[in-house]
Amino acid sequence: MAKKIVVIPGDGIGEEITNAAVLVLKKISDKFQLDLTFESHAAGGTAYDLYGTPLPEKTILAAKAADAVLFGAVGGAVWDNVDPALRPEKAILGLRKSLGLYANLRPIKVMDCLVEYSPLKKEIVSGIDIMIVRELIGGIYFGDKCESEMKDGFERAWDLENYSVPEVERIVKLAMETAQKRNNKVTSVDKANVLATSRLWRRTATKVAASYPDVKLQDMYVDNCAMQLAIHPTEFDVIVTGNLFGDILSDEAAVLGGSIGLMPSASIGECTSLYEPIHGSAPDIAGRGIANPIGTILSAAMLLRHSFAAEAAALAIEKAVEKALLDGYRTMDLYRDGFKKANTEEMTQAI
Amino acid sequence: MAKKIVVIPGDGIGEEITNAAVLVLKKISDKFQLDLTFESHAAGGTAYDLYGTPLPEKTILAAKAADAVLFGAVGGAVWDNVDPALRPEKAILGLRKSLGLYANLRPIKVMDCLVEYSPLKKEIVSGIDIMIVRELIGGIYFGDKCESEMKDGFERAWDLENYSVPEVERIVKLAMETAQKRNNKVTSVDKANVLATSRLWRRTATKVAASYPDVKLQDMYVDNCAMQLAIHPTEFDVIVTGNLFGDILSDEAAVLGGSIGLMPSASIGECTSLYEPIHGSAPDIAGRGIANPIGTILSAAMLLRHSFAAEAAALAIEKAVEKALLDGYRTMDLYRDGFKKANTEEMTQAI
Ligand SMILES: CC(C)[C@H](C(=O)O)[C@@H](O)C(=O)O
Ligand SMILES: CC(C)[C@H](C(=O)O)[C@@H](O)C(=O)O
């Protein structure tokens, strides 16, 4: 039976990179007889410009009805002064919420042939293999907020950070199960020496961990984790944390692991899963056909693996990416003397 | 007229490192006839054990009456299960609040002879010179919080992130003035694509910046900043940000700049200023006389400069630290083959 993938390109380079990934998916679909169909939908600043909303109802319905969603990227300075409720970012935040995507999985690995792209010394970063499990539909991202109010005679704004026990249980369980398939170690990151929410997080994580005696749970403060990622990144196996800390730490980890242009992610939950590269919409290079499609192509591989249990096809894509890189193809962001300069299309063809 | 420094050693290695710094201050005081007096006061987990509170009233009063405060470090796993209101961290948080220390200045620099200690490649980190200006008595650290309540049938906890316009104005002004004495560039870090508080922060920063036409203001998302610090750290001059983001980013920056054991900080505000190393209390090595005293000794140099306008004396300390390092002295945290292994006392003597 045909499997439907809803493709949401978004803004900036979103169109180019999702096109590239769809091309690869079509190729692999032929090869492995996966019978995939694709349907494109609008979201982000471009959707706002066209329809007055960054996340049209039609897009949400299509995503819910799909077997998987492939997402590009949203955002851009041109929409900086739009009403906060209509910002391009609302598209991805709204999709995460509507689809109940409570977990964002961001694998941080670096191929041997790319170790030199890491800003870290080779001996520090070699062998890095982290899975960041970020809570994605709770915390301060979705707490009550106030853009402006008067208090004691002054204007202020606020956002509520908050987590409930079931929200923490759900994500920590997933982290534990993820660790069981890896190296049986989970680092739970919080700021329990300052935040009440973190203290609830920590005691809940400890309770959940009791049911997984084979997995070692370590608690770490977020400031310390930001340091440890830079000095001992290979010590980590699975990192589980809240929405905001996950945003910061996963970007730091991604860049330490090499190029952010290479990093995929999977968001999973109660309904359709969504796959997106972790980089942004890069408006400065949009439309020039030079964006690195690899983050999105590897997200497509995660899609095949997690949503369609098509492990062989996923592996084939991952191998093809590795081969293209070993063969010396490099998009502009990674180009150095002695390599083969490739634009988006050439890189995609090589893969 | 004699100047009084209140010394608050705190927990763990706090005693050893503040002792070292006081020794250096006494020496420099003799040499430059500064006429310093010292008075030691309790705080942190040790104060809690002795007096049932991490921040005795006597300590607060002494700090307020002093000309400057030299602080060690607080915290330790033994106090993890203490009532949140009585945790060791309340000592430093309470002192910051009582003294109105709204700005924490964390210079991130790396001496040429220490570049190799950075986890970053030499060509990326060489020449790094950042001043992080962190808001210190507002934001989610001091917003209302709730350890546990029932909502919709589930237990949850929450913390309120919030900033008022005057709070942001004050810290951004300071950042602007700091940049005027440096390279005229301020990066204001927020998460304005998600948080209402960040949007107020950003519009206020933009307004303040209008009065400093010679300073270039750049806005940056916190996740992007966590990346840029790792790949382009030398692009930054002054970074200004809120309490929580400042906590995370300054620790990341410190470790990228080399050893966190070397980094000093100054907290300034409406009353007495406070100086402390940015590292923690390191309970695992406490009492063994092997802690690196340099972060605290350089904090003492900042104290002389900022609180007593004793620039020559401050410089003398900084030169002495550099000399000891150039001479090959290394505490355990930095020791490598071919150097002179020094414990806390030997390093202090060398300086
Ligand atoms: C675009 C933005 C709202 C988003 C986030 O903060 O979650 C992005 O940074 C990410 O990490 O996916
Ligand atoms: C000890 C802790 C409360 C403190 C903070 O988070 O501010 C520390 O990490 C720091 O940065 O000074």
UniProtKB/TrEMBL annotation, chains A, B:
- Superkingdom of this protein's organism: Bacteria
Task: Give the record's GO CC terms.
Answer: cytosol
BP-aspect Gene Ontology terms: L-leucine biosynthetic process
What does the record give as EC number?
A: 1.1.1.85
Residue positions annotated to bind NAD(+) are G280, S281, A282, P283, D284, I285, A286, G287, R288, G289, I290, A291, N292
Cofactor entry: Mn(2+); Mg(2+)
Q: Which InterPro entries match?
A: IsoCit/isopropylmalate_DH_CS (IPR019818), IsoPropMal-DH-like_dom (IPR024084), Isopropylmalate_DH (IPR004429)
Chief site of localization:
cytoplasm
Identify the residues that bind Mg(2+).
D223, D247, D251
* Protein name (record): 3-isopropylmalate dehydrogenase
